[in-house]
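Weekly structure sync - notes
Attendees: PM, LS, DV (DV joined late)
Agenda: review two folding runs queued last week.

Item 1: First target. Sequence and structure tokens pasted below for the record.
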Amino acid sequence: MKPAKYSLLASSVVSAIIGIQVSSNPAPADPPAPVAATSYPPATHSAAANVRIDNFSFQPRELVIAVGTTVTWQNADDVPHTATSKGDPQVFDSGALDTDEKFSFTFSKPGKYAYYCKVHPHMTGVITVK
């Protein structure tokens, strides 16, 4: 092969490689269409807090939360427990929770909510809702 043919061949190979690279790059995506405004109320963020029942205690024993927060108690002990409000009238009662069972309650009013375990009354806790 003569030098001119090598130059032409090399040029063809380089062009082919560049063509492959260009064609394998995805085209830029179109920007998303604007969302029309609606008259729906804005979404509300729901807060959450957890209380672990372990070693015959509520952890944390005292909890301060905002109105609208959902508290979930989960029993990590090998025996049943409850999360039962002490107030009159009673605001919440989980009933007996076996190992790994959960109970959730959403606090919709400010106040101080003392609670205990009906099975083990020495187990107590307090939820303060602000």
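Item 2: Second target, run right after the first with the same settings.
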Amino acid sequence: MITARQKKALIRLAIALLPLIAIGASLFFHAQGKGPGGRTEIVRLDAGNVDALRQDFNAAAGGTRVVLLLSPT
């Protein structure tokens, strides 16, 4: 029989492992060049690919589009 203390320890362990599993899955899918569900990989935006982003964004007008901008500051 599992005691309440052991149950709490198992829950804490599961919570601690979830981010590691998510990171591992992310690295696995990124290495294959595809995200979960066959989505294309994340790209780094620079001056050379802004037009390609604009074309891809406008081409997907009928679907869900997400642009995520991250800054190191």
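Discussion on item 2: The chain has a mean pLDDT of 80.
Action: LS to circulate a short write-up before next sync.
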